[in-house]
Design goal:
With about 350 residues, the chain is of the alpha+beta class. It contains 8 helices and 19 strands. The radius of gyration is 21 Å and the shape is globular.
């Protein structure tokens, strides 16, 4: 098992927890989160409101359910928690979830510093650190025609001095050629960037740390926040070092774990695990080239899997570059299968 560093106090800039109703922990629920809220009725009985949380203030929670919007007084809340999205087809949760729902799940594991919703689309900015935190996630209806939506995207990123970038999820393989948004972006000269596969697995199907021994002399350390040794090994687009914006984004999920494999006193492999209701995510997997092919990647996955199981995450996802055949082989061998794909489109120079 890994050595565990106790979690420190919440980092500066961490999002505050929502107010707590009497007798129930509402927790850090955000608008757009799928929730179930058990609440008392005037006759003393109880009912569950299941749906998307569309608003919350000091007095009430507003939940958009299949029956319509339900307004619940916080004083009447018995229990409230976030829940995973509903399945769209038969199968285990990691395969039954829809593409758009899984994209929304993954977005909660890598939150930007700033978010503005455009209908169902999410415009995200994070100081330029990673495409995931600095792109418009094009899922759902933007609430206006596509040319108008793209104009809003371009204006949003121009105001922040960032390139206009759209993340387009679609079935695999291919580049979503049958999607209207892809056709419009291509016609306007938006270039393809970073085709990526999203892979999922049932967490219980992943090996645990006890099944993946370390090489002689190696050991594992985990912590709730990344230390300087972990950060020094992280490579974004091949460049070492994590800017201040990146440090905030790395701890933006509901909960996360940072895993380091040490050979002696040298950090030779790292990974990040993250958590949202029902789901764990694996990101930032890196191994020093001289230490590859020693089983360290499998051990990183196993450490995150044990952590995820201890927190009740039934499903696990990761994202891998479509042309990274070595990583795809590692993940496929661990049990992950392709769920869908996405790529970015970047606006042409003005």
């Amino acid at each position: 098992m890994a050595e565990v560093t106790p979690p420190p106090a919440p980092a500066p800039g961490s999002p505050p927890a929502a107010a707590t109703a009497p007798g129930a922990r509402v927790g850090d629920l955000r608008a757009g989160t799928r929730v179930v809220v058990r609440h008392r009725l005037p006759d003393g009985s109880a009912r569950d409101a299941l749906g998307d949380l569309v608003g919350a203030d000091a007095a009430t929670l507003r939940v958009a359910t299949r029956r319509g919007e339900v307004v619940v007084a916080r004083a009447d809340v018995i229990a409230a928690k976030a829940v995973p999205p509903p399945p769209v087809r038969r199968g285990r949760p990691h395969t039954a979830i829809g593409v758009e729902d899984l994209e929304r799940v993954m977005a909660e594991h890598w939150r930007p510093l700033e978010r503005r919703d455009l209908g169902g689309w999410r415009l995200r900015a994070g100081g330029g650190f990673t495409g995931r935190a600095n792109s418009a996630l094009a899922v759902g209806d933007p609430g206006l025609d596509l040319p108008g939506a793209l104009a809003r995207v371009e204006a949003f990123y121009a105001e922040r001095g960032l390139p206009a970038l759209v993340a387009v999820p679609h079935p695999a393989p291919g580049l979503g050629e049958d999607l209207d948004v892809v056709a419009l972006l291509a016609a306007r000269g938006w270039a393809v960037r970073t085709p990526t596969l999203v892979m999922t697995v049932a967490t219980d199907d992943l090996a645990g740390a006890a099944e993946v021994p370390l090489p002689p002399g190696a050991r594992v350390v985990t912590s709730a926040t990344p230390d300087e040794d972990w950060l020094a090994r992280y490579r974004y687009l091949g460049s070492p070092g994590v800017p201040p914006a990146g440090r905030r984004i790395l701890v933006s999920a509901d909960e996360q774990v940072f895993v380091r494999v040490l050979d002696g006193e040298e950090t030779v492999a790292i990974a990040r695990g993250s958590l949202s209701p029902g789901w764990a995510g694996v990101t930032a997997v890196e191994t020093v080239p001289a230490h590859r092919r020693r089983g360290l990647g499998r051990r990183l996955l196993a450490e995150v899997a044990d952590w995820a199981r201890s927190r009740g995450a039934a499903s696990t996802y990761l994202q891998v570059s479509a042309d990274n055949t070595g990583a795809r082989a590692l993940y496929g061998g661990a049990g992950f299968g392709v769920h869908h794909a996405y790529h970015y489109r970047v606006a042409p120079p003005s």
